[in-house]
Amino acid sequence: MRNSRLLELLRTLTPAELTAFGKYLRSPFFNHRDDVVRLFDYFFEKKEVKREDVFDKKTVFGSVFPGEKFDDKKLSYAMSFLYQAAQNFLVYNELMGGGEAAFQIHLARAMRRRGLDRQFETALKKADDALANQPHRNTDFHYLSHLLHLEKYESGVSERRTASRSFQEMAGETDLYFIATKLRQGCTALMHKAVSETSYRLDLLGEVLAQVERQQLQTVPAIGIFYYAYRALTEEDSKPWFGRLREAMRLHFQQFPKAEMRDIYTLAVNYCIRQINTQREAGGHEFYLRQVFEIYREGLENEVFTDGGVLSRFTYNNIANAGLGLKAFDWVEDFLKKYKNSLEPHHRESAYLFNLASLHFRRSDYGRVLELLTQTEFDDLLHQLDARRMLLRSYFELGELTALDSLLDSFQAFLRRRRDVGYLRQNYLNLIRFTKKLLQTPAGDRAAREKLRSEIVEAKALAEREWLLGKV
291-330 b/e with 16+ CB inside 10 Å = b? Predict the structure, then answer.
């Protein structure tokens, strides 16, 4: 029962949503089964309990159907009805959470279909005002505008002049919505391709790009941002396009919901990372690394990267790495402390300690690195690998050879045992192999050292290549 679809869904509800769902179930309009209410109350009261017997079917049945003989089918029916009610509740929330403009448009449609012209006009006017006054000018804005003009068209069909004007406005908004959506899909497809080598067929994208240029639609916020992003991701001379994207991001920041703006910031970061990985131009690597850093700082100031006050541990790591890459050590230290409590509680301590260790590692404070990395067990595989890498270098730099020998053996066993390391396995196995060779090669044996240097240079997969070469 613990792993049922019902409990899986209920666990995703926030405290506020759980309270609202309880009220929803008690409304006879939405639910008329008392056993469903009792079942919800049981789970609601036990949500923090870890004991296995809490989810024992007979225990649950006794609470929901007191005094009755256990009937597995009856309990399953109650769970099924509660699951269906939870799904309906989520759909209801989605429909009611669309904002004032969406609500009034749907209301206007209902009034029009009932021939209530006066109420229709009132709802239509409210929808018009709500849409004009909302701050966002994203794709949803153009979709709602399309629906609004569709209602005006449908109500004016009998009056040919009114209908003609409304139809043209509706068609225009439909075009804007389609173009903005297609451009956003194009950007998403390019990012997927960069990660998974998967190609997507996006029909009409070429025509969409040509239409943007023909009509100079870059001034439309929902179009301009994704147009510049797509050009930056596809043009050989991409830097000017990236500059226009950054300018559009600053200019139109308030015109997108924060969740959507977060996607745009992530798109810009991913572009920069791609440039860093392929950059040949002198100073290009540092330029784009600084851009990543500035994008993250700007996003933090605008609260783009926090969702309900929570900062993803992955974003936390990425921001710290960008600052460390620029040697902005004091800034990173302040950031780690300031946003520690914004992390998800179950990842908070390990993410903080790992990044703090990375900071001290970059500062060559190897003693502090050892203190921090031995305080916790990391549940993230990449953190586990990176922690061992930092320990390896720290033991080497501090001359802790006994501890280093032990680590090299345990690290090698770890890599052999884990099947989810992928291509990184050979990188780290070679690091271990060359570190052992380095320890065994006398400092005064120049021929042996030169041979080791050649082997390190020629190795195809190797972590910490530059550090090893420096030590040789």
Answer: bbbebbbbbbebebbbeeeebbbebbbbbbbbbbbeebee
- Report the distance separating Cα 232 and Cα 242, nearest Å: 5
Give this prediction's pTM. Answer: 0.79
Helix pair 205-215, 221-234: axis angle to 10 deg: 120
Closest-CA residue to 30 (of 90, 72, 71)? 90
DSSP code, position 136: -
The torsion angles phi and psi of 7, rounded to 5 degrees, stand at: -70, -35
Bridge partner list, 306: 311
Closest alpha carbon to 404 in 440, 380, 354: 440
170-172-175-179 Cα dihedral, nearest 10 degrees: -130
| Locus of tokens 């173009």 | 179
Query: What is the full DSSP assignment across 273-328?
Result: HHHHHH--STTHHHHHHHHHHHHHHHHHHTT-SEETTEE-HHHHHHHHHHHHHTT-
**Burial track 115-148 (b if 16+ CB lie within 10 A, e otherwise):** eeeeebeebbebbbebbeeeebbbbbbbbbbbbb
Instruction: Name, in order, each residue with C-beta under 8 angstroms of 270's C-beta and a sequence gap of 6 or more.
Output: 191, 194
Tokens of 358: 């990375």
Side chain identity at residue 361, one-letter code = F
Of 180, 159, 4, residue with least CA distance to 75 = 4
What values do phi and psi take at 306, rounded to 5?
Answer: -100, 135
Mean per-residue pLDDT pooled into runs of 10, the chain (472 residues): 86 91 96 95 75 80 93 95 96 90 94 93 95 93 94 73 75 94 93 76 92 96 96 93 96 92 93 84 85 95 90 94 95 97 92 95 96 85 93 96 95 91 91 95 91 94 93 92
Phi and psi (nearest 5°) for 307?
-120, 105
